[in-house]
Amino acid sequence: MTDQTKLTSIDAYLLSVTPEARTILANIRELIQRNVPDAQETISYQMPAFKRKRTFIYFAAFQKHIGIYPPIKHDEALLKELLPFRNDKGNLKFPLNQPIPYELIGRVATALAQDYG
Which domains does the chain have, with CATH numbers? Predict the structure, then answer.
């Protein structure tokens, strides 16, 4: 994807990333749809996102990881499980060279929908 490309859909975003990242992001997309069925797809900050009343989760592919934003704030048990994946701002980074914890990401989507959606 070039900096000048304005994305208009998650499908367009998926076509702009590597096949490996595309598969992972498609799985995350399906998880969010399943866990938060009333959420609507959108593109925000040039990233795939889902919203209800407002945008509650963003996800994107990078060279070495998948990022999920914004940080979880209120679920202490979930925060402990996410500790290995949190960066200094609390956002989540899932390295591409490790198994992706899809079940955990599904719970993140549900928690973010409750907090922000």
Answer: 10-116 (3.90.1150.200)
